[in-house]
């Protein structure tokens, strides 16, 4: 009996306790229709200050609403207090883009820290990506100790400055601190960081910190497992001893700094290391073996873009079964080599990303690494510029179905690019980047390439031996932005479907092929900004539609185009139509952004339209070899930024304007055009940004590249230091040579030959201190050759033959090297014995001949091509780099945005946001 009475009582007791507990539990979070009132209040205040209704719809000011159930809020089960807040990307003033770039100007940027005082139990706070630039806290009450339990603080992608660091001294409980992608500047905050002794994860990447990183600064951080200091400007020697003491370190990311020094054998002690990213520093030495084998847990090993030396034998990594990312590319050292075949080994890893570009891979045999045949998980593989031989390893695509990026450019692969049978059934939906440029691959592109690789973003097959038609199926690649087909043997017409189907296409390069037919009529591809189709056999006329689109750079030179030029075509940043048969007048230009206009060697008639004189950014005006008539207007002097003016081989008459000295004729950098057409005002995609940057780099680096390219082309030595050119040769110009031309001290080449110029050679020419080529032949010049010209030390080409010059030619300086061919046809001119020796000429006779027989002083084609080549090189290089290197990608675009904003300020701002 006792039991029968006691038992139900016991059961009831237990039931009551359980129910009570349950009720308590529930009440803790909901029965009081809410969380703690002060917490709820703080949340609502946060919302009204920084966010809005559409971003936080569940956060309502309603007594029945329980804030523990709100989105982005988590409460502790037992205490009922808020313990996690995920308040990232909530700022109502946030525009497009990351970090500072995305913030609208008038945003409420300071976040009131006292709001968070209400959350006594807060353990995690995420405020990333909110445009915040500071905390507001009450002066004097700087004890932030209220958040005694805060362990995780994420402030990444905001606008915080370094001063925010002092704020953390009170938060000694912090385990994880993320300040990546802010604008922290100044010296590395060693002191502030050393207070945070409980840190397990520290991320300060993508800021503007500089200075050294000392072993001392790291001494207190013995619990650190993750240290990310990528993309700062830290320098000095790598504090390797300090790092080696952090035995728990799992992630060490110091990519893109300027650390020097060598890796020490003590790295072997970091046996927990999963990620070692030292990419893009200045580290030296060749000590790998002693430590690499100890780091058996490595998943990412990124040592590229350093100055490491010696041979890196991949069999060191044979047993690293967890390795997924290996980057050894672009070593800035003559001796660094990757060897994969030194001894037989079997890879225990399945790589996801491999970049051994420019690593002199197997430099003796030039064979493809054989371990690749065991890899099946590759997502990105980059073997650029290794001169590898053998037939194109198409089987890699078959073995690795997850491939996203394949970069095989710059090797010597031969054979054809035939897709294996299986690929006709298995589409490679993941593949986005395919670069097989600069090889010796022949045959046709597979007809179904667009179906097999439907999601390609970049397809680069340029500089190979491909022939046949360009497959129509490329038009299926809706996401293709970059299509490079140049320097092959493609023939036939370019199918309209390619232009109309590739809706994302922004650059199309197909120069130097055998394409023919009319230019494709395309019905709308507003994103196309760059079209190179030179050196093909395109015929017919350029339609108005063709130029209606956003094309910024249009190169149709050396085709067989005829008809007239629609006005809209002229309004491009670069337009090159050299070497066609276009007739009629040059249309009026109606916008002012043109930088290069090359209409040479066509059949243009009439006069130079006045509107051209109103193009303030024009740097190259090349109208040679047409049938232009009329007087040369002095309005041409309004083109102050011209570097090259070539009007040779026309029928221009009248005097040479005396104001030509108003034109700069120099390669000085000038402000790039303020607005680029073809860029929609919002949502410009990545490729367009890249293109923009390429343009910008082009402007900035023109000088160097130009010179190098040009001098290695037609002219040996350093004759061509400056590329500014004035060429008015082979016209009907009369009158005297204006002495003001002597003011063009940066002029490299002056050609006034084959006109009817009279009078004497101006003495002011002695001021042409940069002149290297001066051709005044075939005119009616009389008088003496001014002795002062002897001071022109750069003069290498001088021609005054067939004039009426008299007296004695100078024989000092460069003139000591000139002879008969320079002076003949002047019956009253005599020249000394020394002058007859041509031998001392800096040019070999053949070259001299070549140059002298040119109608214009400088072959405009060659210098233009060097210019274009520069552009394409920059663009390609950047694309390659960007797509290979995921962490560069983020960094780079961050950088671009920064640079663009800095350099172009508000001018381009419009185009981007
Ligand atoms: C919530 O509503 C009450 C009453 O309508 C109001 O007094 C209070 O200021 C509101 N709180 C917030 C944070 O908006
Ligand atoms: C809230 O802010 C977001 C982000 O800035 C914005 O897109 C949205 O239009 C805003 N909604 C309201 C109702 O203001
Ligand atoms: C933001 O506004 C201020 C003041 O109106 C102005 O000086 C500043 O240039 C603006 N910044 C940007 C990035 O527009
Ligand atoms: C590893 O650490 C131990 C103890 O700190 C040290 O004695 C040893 O020299 C270190 N190893 C290397 C290779 O530096
Ligand atoms: C990859 O392809 C090659 C060539 O077809 C083949 O020999 C190799 O077995 C394949 N590897 C795997 C893992 O399938
Ligand atoms: C193109 O890109 C978009 C977004 O990145 C993706 O959803 C789509 O599947 C891609 N492919 C095609 C063929 O549109
Ligand atoms: C274009 O070239 C192909 C082969 O190269 C030739 O068969 C065809 O007749 C050419 N078409 C035109 C219009 O010239």
Notes on the structure:
The protein is α/β, with parallel strands linked by helices and 913 residues long. Among the domains are: 110 residues, Leucine-rich repeat, LRR (right-handed beta-alpha superhelix); 185 residues, Leucine-rich repeat, LRR (right-handed beta-alpha superhelix) (Alpha-Beta Horseshoe), CATH 3.80.10.10; 150 residues, Leucine-rich repeat, LRR (right-handed beta-alpha superhelix), CATH 3.80.10; 39 residues. Helix content is 19%, strand content 18%. It has a 28-stranded mixed beta sheet. Helix 10 packs across helix 14 and helix 13 packs across helix 14. The longest helix is centred in the N-terminal third of the chain and has 30 residues. It starts with a helix and ends with a helix. The N terminus and C terminus are likely disordered. The structure holds 2-acetamido-2-deoxy-beta-D-glucopyranose (7 copies). The site of one 2-acetamido-2-deoxy-beta-D-glucopyranose has 4 residues, from loops. The site of one 2-acetamido-2-deoxy-beta-D-glucopyranose (NAG) has 5 residues, from helix 7.
Write the layout of secondary structure elements.
Elements: H1 2-31, H2 37-50, E1 73-75, E2 82-86, E3 110-112, E4 124-126, E5 134-136, E6 152-154, E7 176-178, E8 185-187, H3 190-194, E9 201-203, E10 208-211, H4 215-219, E11 226-228, E12 233-237, H5 240-244, E13 251-253, E14 258-260, E15 275-277, H6 289-292, E16 300-302, E17 311-313, E18 325-327, E19 337-339, E20 353-355, E21 380-382, H7 395-399, E22 405-407, E23 433-435, E24 442-443, H8 449-452, E25 458-460, E26 465-468, E27 482-484, E28 489-492, H9 496-501, E29 507-509, E30 514-518, E31 530-532, E32 537-541, E33 553-555, E34 560-562, E35 574-576, E36 583-585, E37 596-598, E38 603-605, E39 620-622, E40 644-646, E41 653-655, H10 686-713, E42 725-727, E43 732-736, E44 749-751, E45 756-758, E46 773-775, E47 782-783, E48 797-799, E49 804-808, H11 820-823, E50 828-830, H12 845-853, H13 860-884, H14 886-912
Parallel strand pairs: 2-4, 3-5, 4-6, 6-7, 7-9, 8-10, 9-11, 10-12, 11-13, 12-14, 13-15, 15-16, 16-18, 17-19, 18-20, 20-21, 21-22, 22-23, 23-25, 24-26, 25-27, 26-28, 27-29, 28-30, 29-31, 30-32, 31-33, 32-34, 33-35, 35-37, 36-38, 37-39, 39-40, 40-42, 41-43, 42-44, 43-45, 44-46, 46-48, 47-49, ...
Antiparallel strand pairs: 1-2
Helix pairs in contact: 10-13, 10-14, 13-14
The protein binds 2-acetamido-2-deoxy-beta-D-glucopyranose (7 copies).
């Amino acid at each position: 009996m006792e039991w029968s009475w006691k038992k139900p009582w016991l059961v009831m007791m237990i039931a009551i306790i359980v129910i009570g507990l349950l009720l308590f539990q529930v009440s803790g979070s909901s029965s009081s229709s809410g969380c703690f009132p002060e917490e709820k209040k703080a949340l609502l205040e946060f919302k009204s200050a920084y966010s809005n209704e559409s971003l936080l719809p569940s956060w309502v000011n309603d007594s029945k609403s329980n804030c523990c159930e709100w989105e982005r809020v988590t409460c502790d089960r037992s205490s009922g207090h808020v313990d996690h807040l995920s308040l990232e990307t909530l700022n109502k003033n946030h525009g497009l883009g990351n970090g500072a770039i995305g913030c609208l100007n008038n945003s409420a940027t300071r976040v009131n820290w006292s709001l968070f005082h209400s959350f006594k139990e807060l353990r995690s706070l995420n405020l990333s990506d909110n445009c915040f630039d500071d905390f507001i806290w009450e002066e004097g009450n700087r004890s932030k100790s209220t958040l005694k339990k805060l362990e995780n603080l994420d402030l990444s992608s905001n606008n915080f400055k370094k001063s925010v660091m002092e704020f953390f001294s009170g938060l000694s409980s912090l385990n994880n601190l993320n300040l990546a992608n802010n604008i922290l500047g100044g010296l590395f905050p060693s002191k502030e960081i050393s207070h945070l002794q409980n840190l397990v994860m520290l991320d300060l990447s993508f800021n503007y910190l500089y200075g050294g990183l000392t072993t001392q600064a790291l001494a207190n951080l013995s619990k650190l497992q993750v240290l990310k200091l990528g993309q700062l400007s830290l320098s000095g020697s790598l504090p390797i001893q300090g790092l080696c003491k952090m035995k728990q370190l799992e992630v060490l990311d110091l990519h893109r700094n300027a650390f020097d020094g060598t890796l020490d054998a003590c790295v072997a002690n970091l046996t927990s290391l999963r990620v070692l990213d030292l990419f893009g520093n200045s580290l030296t030495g060749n000590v790998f073996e002693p430590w690499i084998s100890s780091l058996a847990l490595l998943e990412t090993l990124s040592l590229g873009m350093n100055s490491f030396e010696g041979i890196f034998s991949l069999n060191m990594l044979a047993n690293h079964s967890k390795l997924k990312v290996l980057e050894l590319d672009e070593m800035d050292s003559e001796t660094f080599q990757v060897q994969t075949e030194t001894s037989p080994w079997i890879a225990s890893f399945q790589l996801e990303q491999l970049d051994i570009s420019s690593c002199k891979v197997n430099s003796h045999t030039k064979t493809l690494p054989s371990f690749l045949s065991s890899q099946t998980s590759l997502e990105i593989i980059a073997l650029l510029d290794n001169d590898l031989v053998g037939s194109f390893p198409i089987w890699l695509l078959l073995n690795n179905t997850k491939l996203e990026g394949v970069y095989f450019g710059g090797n010597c692969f031969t054979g054809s690019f035939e897709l294996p049978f299986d690929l006709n059934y298995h589409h490679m939906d993941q593949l986005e980047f395919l670069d097989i440029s600069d090889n010796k691959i022949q045959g046709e592109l597979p007809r179904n390439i667009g179906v097999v690789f439907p999601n390609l973003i970049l397809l680069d097959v340029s500089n190979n031996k491909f022939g046949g038609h360009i497959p129509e199926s490329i038009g299926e690649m809706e996401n293709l932005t970059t299509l490079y087909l140049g320097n092959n043997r493609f023939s036939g017409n370019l199918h309209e479907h390619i232009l109309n189907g590739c809706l994302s296409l922004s650059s199309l390069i197909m120069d130097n092929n055998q394409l023919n037919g009319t230019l494709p009529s395309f019905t709308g591809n507003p994103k196309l900004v760059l079209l190179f189709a030179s050196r093909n056999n395109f015929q017919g006329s350029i339609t108005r539609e063709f130029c209606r689109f956003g094309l910024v750079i249009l190169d149709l030179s050396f085709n067989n185009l005829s008809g007239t030029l629609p006005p809209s075509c002229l309004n491009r940043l670069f337009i090159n139509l050299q070497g066609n048969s276009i007739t009629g007048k040059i249309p009026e230009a109606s916008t002012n952004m043109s930088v290069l206009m090359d209409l040479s060697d066509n059949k243009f008639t009439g006069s130079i339209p006045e509107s051209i004189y109103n193009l303030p950014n024009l740097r190259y005006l090349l109208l040679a070899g047409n049938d232009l008539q009329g007087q040369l207007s002095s309005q041409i002097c309004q083109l102050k930024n011209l570097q090259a003016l070539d009007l040779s081989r026309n029928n221009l008459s009248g005097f040479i304007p005396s104001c030509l000295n108003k034109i700069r004729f120099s390669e000085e950098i000038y402000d790039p055009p303020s607005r680029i057409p073809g860029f929609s005002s919002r949502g410009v995609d990545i490729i367009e940004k890249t293109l923009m940057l390429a343009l910008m780099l082009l402007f900035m680096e023109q000088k160097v590249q130009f010179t190098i390219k040009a001098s290695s082309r037609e002219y040996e030595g350093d004759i061509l230091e400056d590329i500014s050119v004035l060429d008015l040769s082979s016209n009907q110009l009369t009158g005297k040579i204006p002495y003001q031309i002597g003011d063009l001290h940066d002029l490299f080449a002056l050609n006034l030959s084959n006109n009817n110029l009279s009078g004497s050679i101006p003495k002011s020419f002695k001021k042409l201190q940069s002149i290297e080529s001066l051709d005044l032949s075939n005119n009616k010049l009389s008088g003496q050759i001014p002795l002062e010209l002897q001071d022109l030390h750069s003069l290498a080409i001088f021609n005054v033959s067939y004039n009426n010059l008299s007296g004695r030619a100078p024989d000092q300086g460069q003139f000591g090297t000139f002879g008969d061919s320079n002076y003949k046809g002047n019956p009253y001119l005599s020249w000394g014995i020394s002058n007859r020796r041509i031998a001392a000429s800096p040019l070999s006779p053949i070259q001299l001949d070549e140059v002298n027989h040119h109608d214009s002083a400088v072959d405009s084609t060659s210098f233009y091509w060097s210019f274009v080549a520069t552009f394409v090189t920059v663009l390609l290089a950047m694309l390659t780099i960007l797509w290979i290197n995921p962490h560069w990608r983020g960094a780079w675009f961050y950088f671009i945005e920064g640079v663009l904003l800095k350099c172009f300020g508000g001018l381009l701002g419009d185009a981007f946001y």
